[in-house]
Amino acid sequence: MQLLQVTTLLLMLLLLILLCPEHSASEIECERWADLDSGVFQKEGQIILAGYFPIHSQDVPQELSFESAPGKTRCKGFNLRAFRWSQAMIYFIEEINRNPNLLPNITLGYRLYDTCWLVALSMRSALSAVSQPLKRNSTGACSSPSIPVIIGDSGSSLTIAISRLLNLFRVPLVSYFASCACLSDRKNFPYFFRTVPSDSYQASALARLIKHFGWTWVGAMGADDAYGRTALEMFSAEVTRLGMCLAFRAIIPKVPTQQQLQELVQIIRDSTARVLVAVATEEDMQPLIEEMIRQNVTGRQWVASEAWVTSTLFSTIYPSLSGTIGFAIRRADIPGLKTFLQNLQPLAEPYNPSAIEFWETQFQCSFNKDLPLSMGDPVQFNRTCTGQERIEDTETIYNDVSQLRVTYNLHKAVYAVAHALHSLLMCQKEGGNSDKQQQCPDILNLQPWQVIQYLKEVNFTNMFGDTVNFDEYGDPAGSYDIINWHKGEEGRPLEFATVGRFDSSLPTEQQLVIHQDKLMWHAGSKEVPVSVCSASCLPGYRKATRKGEPVCCYDCVPCAEGTISNSIDQSECTFCPEDLWSNPQRNSCVEKQIEFLSYTEGFGMALAATAILGVVATVTVATIFLRHRDTPLVRANNSELSFLLLLSLTFCFLCALTFLGQPSRWACPLRRTAFGLTFALCLSCLLSKTLVVLMAFRATLPGDNTARWFRPPQQRMGVFLCSALQCAICVAWLTTAPPYPVKNNWLYRDRIILECHLGSVALFCCVLGYIGCLAVFCFILAFLARKLPGNFNEAKFITFSMLIFCAVWIAYIPAYVSSPGKFTVAVEIFAILASSFGVLLCIFAPKCYIIIFMPEKNTKKYLMSQKVSR
């Protein structure tokens, strides 16, 4: 890098030597250097400021023979805006010279260069600035008083070129319109400052503007220069960061051919993007706009960069661009400037070549005098200018001061340099013989590098209330107005309406402000244009990116069950909390349906009715037995145990009702213990009955005294002991790990099953196991006694009842395991009711039938006859 700088410096010095006239050292003393700056307008002063302006937009091609020196560079395309900028700089410098509080007793001069928007001419102007005419200084020696600061250039590409050259001489450059973010690189541009915001701010602001209006699919174009390419790159990165996409990226050639324009317009026509972002200058955009109008490509929403968003040319001749929106640098109303511009005197000395060309072009006349020529190609008009023509009678960009934006940046630049020089002057005037005073530069013999530190420290508030300073990169804060092009009245040009602002110095949420009610879009519409690759996904859907396409092109897929999206364009559906579930629209979570076997549903009502029917049947049987308790049939079947059995069956039927309804802390223990105790009591009664029947017939054998152990007190004791053992197990269960209600979230995802957890599975198995043991033991004994005499024998009925009981509960186990949710409880209730009805019908139905329908058999004689016959 250092070698490159040294090489460049040697080349520049060689160029300067070649440009100097060939004289001896004594002859060249204090003579003027070769003319590098014809057409420059200047005014002498104690300190000279240089200003670069593209007063012409392009050069006139000339043939190069390489046999003689090329002729003077000629330019064409007189730029009224740039000429106004140059005149404004004169006005600002004269204003400073009149101000007694700023640079007192110091007169500023100026040298204004026309760079013709050419890099070569800008470089030539930079060389001119660092090689001023030789003068004798206070010691009598010849020296070249350098220009301490250069103000310019307007274009980023031009500024980059001259800044690299001026770095070799440590000359600070303050630009009023070069916004390329690349110029913030202090390693490559250590002496560069500017009053226009960096494009890094504009790229961020443009992307946020696109995001604000919901334009996720846009086309982007940039000029083929440092300004356009760098800004386009930064804008693309910012758009991607904010989750949006570019439909296409295109470069606008500086001098486009017709084919290039047609290809570019074809890209715009074929793209589905309806919003176009263009980062380019007015000169770059004009051929493209004209080609689009020629091909009748309409219906596009333009988003303009600050370089052309306030283009008076476009607003005047292209009404189809109405609705264009973009960021413009801040404007100001500068008092006295319009009067100064209108008081321009083309023949006043010193002659201003550009003012003369402006006058001739504006009024279509010629002075026909031998006057200094500007950079423009001479044009002869038939009419003679008098110099008395009135500018105020014309309406042009030159005297239109309604949109002073670049001019305001120029105002900041000139005053920033003035304040830096003022600080340097104040350093000199400090009293005392201090070291600081000795270090202060001599303002009348100033070197450019001595101003740099004072420029870095510039910080003042101008007459418009804006703070002017530079950050560590030489940049100001990013501050823009948002401009919207409104349709003017019939025959009037488009109007620039300020509809918001962007200020990077504010907190993030306050930086972008847009007044929606002031916006007007293409063709006067108030509805925001739509520019998306895919329509927004509504709540309840998620975005599914299409393979091989940008993220903005997607399909809308409904959210799965249990997930929701409650805003538009969600990339992923979110899961509902554990106790919630998605609604049918999948846009909100609602409480899961609580499910349990309820009395109010049909199935629950049927089971409850069956249980109540069982209770009624049992009570009916008990009533029949009670009314016929003195009959032989009732007495022969141990009426006490029968009534106790009927009571236990009643409890069994009632126990089934506890399984219905919502599980609770009292219902869960009740249903389990009630089930265990009632069935233990029922089976204990059956076991006692079986033993009584069996022992009764064994007691008929001679010498058998077994019957005395099965009298009623012993029977009651047996029933009590069998039930007490079950009761002990239940007490242990309730005190250690009782059943409790739980919410079953794992069986079904869309609903919650309320059920009773067993608490202790081992103790529950003990309860069931004990009931099973009683049933099996009772079945075995009844089976052994099944062939005893029928009229006295209940064993065969107990056998059938136990067979049904065991079959029901054996079938219950797989049915219980495989039944989901509330049907598990239903299976359990069914098993309770089936086994209870089995016992009731098998044991008591035959007896009730005899008692009611065959009373003749319910006699002692009949029973004894049956015994004798057997």
UniProtKB/TrEMBL annotation:
The chain crosses the membrane at residues 603-626, 641-661, 673-697, 718-740, 760-785, 797-817, 829-854. Residues 603-867 form the G-protein coupled receptors family 3 profile domain. Keywords: Cell membrane, G-protein coupled receptor, Glycoprotein, Membrane, Receptor, Signal, Transducer, Transmembrane, Transmembrane helix. The keyword Protein biosynthesis does not apply. CDD domains: 7tmC_V2R_pheromone (cd15283), PBP1_CaSR (cd06364). One of its GO terms (cellular component) is plasma membrane. SUPFAM superfamilies: Periplasmic binding protein-like I. Residues 1-25 form the signal peptide. It is a multi-pass membrane protein. InterPro entries: ANF_lig-bd_rcpt, GPCR_3, GPCR_3_9-Cys_dom, GPCR_3_9-Cys_sf, GPCR_3_C, GPCR_3_Ca_sens_rcpt-rel, GPCR_3_CS, GPCR_3_vmron_rcpt_2. GO terms for molecular function: G protein-coupled receptor activity. Its main location: membrane. It is found in: Cell membrane. PANTHER family: C-FAMILY ODORANT RECEPTOR OLFCD2-RELATED, CALCIUM-SENSING RECEPTOR-RELATED. Belongs to the G-protein coupled receptor 3 family. This is Olfactory receptor C family, w1. It comes from Astyanax mexicanus (Blind cave fish). The lineage of its organism: Eukaryota, Metazoa, Chordata, Craniata, Vertebrata.
